[in-house]
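#struct-pred
JK: can someone run the complex with beta-D-glucopyranose? inputs below
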Amino acid sequence: MHQSGTGRGMGFRDSCQDLLGFVHLIPARARERILDIAATQFEDGNAYHQYQPLTKKGNMDIGAGFNDDPLWLIAAVSAYVRETGDLSILDEQVDFNNDHKLAQPLMEHLRRSYQYTLNHRGPHGLPLIGRADWNDCLNLNCFSKTPGESFQTSGPSEGPVAESVFIGGMFVKYANEYADLCDATHRANEAIEARNAAQEMSRVILGPGWDGAWFRRAYDAFGNPVGSKKNEEGQIYIEPQGMCVMAGVGVESGEAVKALASVKEKLDTKYGIVLLQPAYTRYHEELGEITSYPPGYKENAGIFCHNNPWVSCAETVVGHGDRAFEIYKKTCPAYIENISEIHRTEPYVYSQMVAGKDAPTHGEGKNSWLTGTAAWTFVNVSQYILGVQPTLKGLRIDPCIPHELDGFELTRVFRGATYHIMVDNSAHVEKGVKSVTVNGKPIQGNVLPLAKAGEQVEVRGVLGI
Ligand code: BGC
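RT: done, structure tokens with the ligand placed:
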């Protein structure tokens, strides 16, 4: 038996992230799914947290107010357009709140997603968290006192103080991807504006969002930091470390490497990276559901398979191919068959989470199948580790692999052409493309020129200094 999630509707953020893993497989279905999801967005840019895939309507029971949701729409659309080159999707008329009278082009939906985050910022200039962000259980505006009541629906959905550093990181990443789409559709001024806003957010993250050795997680409704050495429990969280570094925050100035070293030191275990440390040992009303779980389980310091790839991706951003692959292997079913008696779930599937080091059953998988891991793992392996990245202009080749690999070969179908890619790592480095040839001819840089549909392309990349 496994929970399908359809009873309560499908998640807006979950469905947007799932798209990252299948835009290349069935682009026509991905296109349809994007338009359905976008139609559940509200005019102010926020969205129903869940929708029913059959009626395609937003789910009133849960409502809205999860302030990461709008930005995931940009992530999904950007992935689709980079993969397919189909800019026409941006002109599709899409309802707001499933109301035809309110229809606007999809590009306008993305603009509202971007604006929503900008218009909902707190005292430090970080995005307001609303009900919660990716971590549904970090409920900073809920203050639930009644056992059994839903943290997702009780309490106010908004608060003017509680902020999320994680959404800040998302904003930097996806405002930049939005800017690329603006450029591609001749909206140069908007592109500049969005890139400036991303840069400004990056500065805020490196200010009040930085704790000295890692990124803070949030600020609570009283303006106190969450995920800080100042806290008694929950001093460091995984999510902002992965997302901020993927977004490029602190990469040049050194904070990114520091944050990832802190993850390794404080959150790593032999079965994967736990969500936070130290685990919460009592209920904190100002933090919500996350502190209602036993230490080591679920969001309270479990190993969430969904966000382990973010850290692996982040390690490739700073050039650590050995570490990125090590993280990948820790939760990957194919690499952990020898611990099946500990892991206990089906040996070929990811679980929502694996019990963390504070749990008596450390290493045991929970809620197999019901996880957003597959899409991010695919993105991690194909785009960050093997480094074959769909961009608006073509495939970019930028691997970050374990240094002992001599190289690799893969075949990638992209916009109808087939690329046979061979990467030579006889230099045994972790990252750095020295030269690329396409059909025997050297090219400038590492973005492959677009081939026509039906063509076969021979690509050879050499890593080294
Ligand atoms: C939800 C996701 C959420 C994750 C972490 C999952 O159960 O479906 O939307 O991001 O938990 O809280």
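RT: quick notes.
The chain is about 30% helix and 20% strand.
Residues 165-184 form the longest helix (20 residues).
JK: thanks, will look after standup
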